[in-house]
Amino acid sequence: MGVTETDGGAATSQAGTPAVGYQPGGIAGYYGAAGQAAGQSALVALGAALAHRGPAENRAEAGRIGLVVRSAPDVTAGATDRDGTVVVAAGVDPAAVADRYASGGVELLATLPTPWTAALLDPRREALVLVAAGAPLYYAPAAAGVDGLAFASEPAALVEAGLVSSAPDTERVVEFVLTGGGEDGEATFFAGIRRLPAGQALIVDGSGASTRSIDAVTPPVDGLAAARNALAASHRPAVRLGLGLPGAALAATAKTTPGIPPSAYFSASFAPMDTTEDMYVGAVSASLGATVHSVRVNADTLASDLAQFLRVQGEPVADLGEYVQYAVAKTAREGGADSLLDPVGAIAAYGLTVETTGKKPRKEVAPTTLLAPTLAQSRAAAPAEGTPAPRPVVPASARLAEARRTADRNAARLGIRIDTPFANPVADAGHGGSSLRSALPAGAPGDVRHSAPVRDWLLRLKNRIYGTFLAESFVNRPWFHQQNVLVAFEDFIKGRNHDADLFWRIWCVEMWAQEFLDPKPEEKEPVRIKGPLEANANKQLEITVDKERWLRFPIRTELFTSGDDYTRRITGYVSEFIDHVRADGSYLAAFNGPWYLLVSEKIIAISQGRSYFIWDIEPSWWARTLAKFVVKTPYGIGLGSPWTMELAIREAGLPRILFAAGVSAAGKAVGKRGLFYQVAGHSVRAIDGPTEYSVYPANVSAKLAPAHPDRVASKLKSTIAATLTEAGLPQLAKTLAGVVVIDANDIGRNVLGSDADRPEEFFENLFGDNPLGQGSEQTPLSVAVRIG
After folding, report:
1. Which residues pair with 419 in a beta bridge?
2. What pLDDT is recorded for position 147?
3. Tens of pLDDT along 35-45?
4. CATH 3.60.20.10 residue ranges in the chain?
5. Are strands 237-241 and 736-745 parallel, antiparallel or unpaired?
6. For residue 261, is the peptide bond before it cis, meaning its omega torsion is within 30 degrees of 0?
7. Peptide bond into 94 cis (omega under 30)
8. Residue 463: what pLDDT?
9. CATH assignment of 4-213?
10. Where do you find CATH 3.40.50.620 in the chain?
11. Span(s) in the chain for CATH 3.30.1330.100
């Protein structure tokens, strides 16, 4: 029995792009298949899930055990020892693993230089042996379809192969959010998947599973010597300047290494929000006499790449510098480089300190207060208001393990080897990076810099992030206290706290959950923009009111913003609509009778400057307290948020709101509802809050009712009539019977202002099915005309 090579097909990335260039290899397999067909099916699925790690696929099966390895075509990834043990390995010669295992068992494997992983199929013991020697390996103790254990080089591969559900490990998520802790322990973000710790062997046989240590004493490395070795092993190297001193030391080392081309140097440009990185790199390049390629990496590229980056990693990442590595490596690979020398891990390895700048924040967030109450109770009590929150220290070993892991997955997807000479214990750790400083040429800055301007990026993306925190998926997670997260994030936006890394982790976890945990919606055909004389999707043009048949034509517009001349813009849209009616001819005769324009109050309020970003509203204690008692509906937030309640208090006054709340509570006790708004008034009823389905900026805004809606309706009516008359359409101007400003959604309608010849109740019934839509239709106007 041996390793069988199969036609694995071309390796592809998660997005379907061919993964060319460097192939780091990957292993997977199972113990305890329910049958030959089940075992073969599992190996095929696992091999496909690791396709990005190499186009060549080899499999081995014996009894209830199966192995599969993906590798580059010219790499020997499988071997069989003299006793028939089959070995598949990544990062090491499998023949060396087989020889040592045959000679001395698992313990002898400690003599092999790390990092590597291997799986051994021992037919004599009918055992599966998994070894993690400095590289990550993951296993599922109860994998579906194989009645036993399954393993792979990446946890996401087990999920994608259908062997493990994507259920999350809540404790791991919480640990990550609170500390950003790396992957030093056995837990992963997936509840059914465990990590085999470095230096451990897992032996699975008929008697069960057991672990055995194969730790070898690995002396700290000379980081710069490791860098020189990596450069010597590459044909077309690239070097990334980053983190300040560590990247500059790598560039200086490369400059003194024979054969390194002048085009080998790359750096991330965080402009336009942060140009200090460009200034630093410019000073280093001048002192080295080298040209550095600048790669655009900023908040906009992060927003564009985030879903794919998380798909590449398979897990949330604490350090945004790992995204910077991804972006630079991608550009270097596209430029022809076959390897990237990267400074990631240097800050943890050398114990470097990044100098903080800017004024001290007014307060720090106690991370436990952002957790769901049941989770927060299981953690240490939160500190008192204003007291700095204690932050658990994450061991350097965990930071370095995460740096190695993320570099490995970036490399596998991008097809470029990523060498991280500092992502291991280094010889002069704790000496302030003296070896790095000694490597710099005269005049080169020795600053230690952040891996990425996280705070600037999050502020740039605040609208997107806020929308994520308002989304139904975020609310339904069992991890967070949404209201506390929103309040703390508002404080961050306003500069009251500087906990950017904390909010990045929360956002990152939610985006990872959306990518891996949430069901993917079925692919839909591209949304078709409705025609000018068509109804919105799932709505009807016609309705019957008081035995009269009416048509309601929704009019699509561009977004309105504060300060817009809404009278001019609305008049223009109505004129364009009339042109379409005349050109079509089908409905023109109906306009000989009365017709009406109905206007959503939202665009009037927005134009009048009565719409506010959430972070610009300061909810009072009363607002936060009263909002908790408002019944939420899926059709709008109403006053069920502190921001909208605060607007209601400002609009109607606290005494009136309190009185309305009391009347409402008394009414509910005797079965009467709707009394709150009868007391608080129509202007309070019209206050709207942010909703996930709305178009930006409505998804992160709250708004008051428009001011003087009757005057608005009258001015619109007279202006439209005058415009139609000037356009040679006096009959249409004459039959325009009214303009109405209305607040409509899927559960209710409320006329706020009117200059029309019919009662308000008629128009509320006319909009009984909300023909304007409830989402992103962008149809805030509707023309209504009677047809019978």
Report:
1. 341
2. 75
3. 678 888 999 99
4. 4-213
5. unpaired
6. no
7. no
8. 84
9. 3.60.20.10
10. 223-351+396-460
11. 542-608+708-786
Token code pair at residue 760: 């308000």
* CA–CA distance, 172 with 178 (Å, rounded to integer): 10
The arrangement of secondary structure in 542-608+708-786, i.e. its CATH architecture, is 2-Layer Sandwich (3.30)
Q: Which two tokens stand for residue 674?
A: 């709707």
Strands 237-241, 339-341: pairing is: parallel
Residue 516 Cα to chain centre, angstroms: 11
Quote the tokens at residue 634. Answer: 């899926």
- Distance between CA atoms of residues 744 and 763, nearest Å: 10
Structure tokens at 301: 């590229």
Match 């470029």 to its residue by tokens.
416
The token duo for 41 is 């099916």
Give, as one character, the DSSP assignment of residue 190.
Answer: B
Contact by Cβ (8 Å): 61, 20: no
The pair of structure tokens assigned to 419 is 């060498």
pLDDT computed for residue 221 by the predictor: 87
String of DSSP letters for 396-432: HHHHHHHHHHHHHHHHHHHTSEEE-TTSS-BTTTTTT
Residue 255 makes CB contacts below 8 A (sequence gap 6+) with 288, 289, 290, 441
Which parts of the chain have pLDDT scores under 50? 1, 7-19, 382, 385-386, 388, 634-635
Tell me the backbone φ, ψ of residue 704, rounded to 5 degrees: -85, 170
pLDDT for position 437: 93
How far is residue 411's CA from residue 312's CA, in Å, rounded to a whole number?
10
Nearest to 539 by CA among 552, 526, 550: 552
Q: Which residues pair with 339 in a beta bridge?
A: 237, 417
Q: Which of 666, 628, 667, 668 is nearest to 644 (CA)?
A: 628
CA angle 262, 323, 200 (to 5 degrees): 105
Distance between CA atoms of residues 494 and 615, nearest Å: 7
pLDDT of residue 474: 92
Measure CA 22 to chain center: 27
603 phi, psi to nearest 5 deg:
-70, -25
Asked: is 223-351+396-460 a CATH 3.40.50.620 domain? The reply is yes
C-alpha–C-alpha distance, residues 624 and 372, integer Å = 18
Q: Edge-to-edge, what's the strand order for the sheet holding 127-133? A: 78-80, 86-90, 116-122, 127-133, 200-205, 208-213
The residues facing 29 across adjacent strands are 67, 151
What's the pLDDT at 6?
56
Structural tokens at position 281: 């790199």
Predicted structure pTM score: 0.79
Ramachandran quadrant class, 495 (left: phi over 0; alpha: psi -120 to 50; beta: rest): left
* pLDDT computed for residue 527 by the predictor: 60
Phi, psi dihedral angles at 101 (to 5 degrees): -65, -40
Evaluate whether 455 touches 461 at the Cβ level (below 8 Å): no
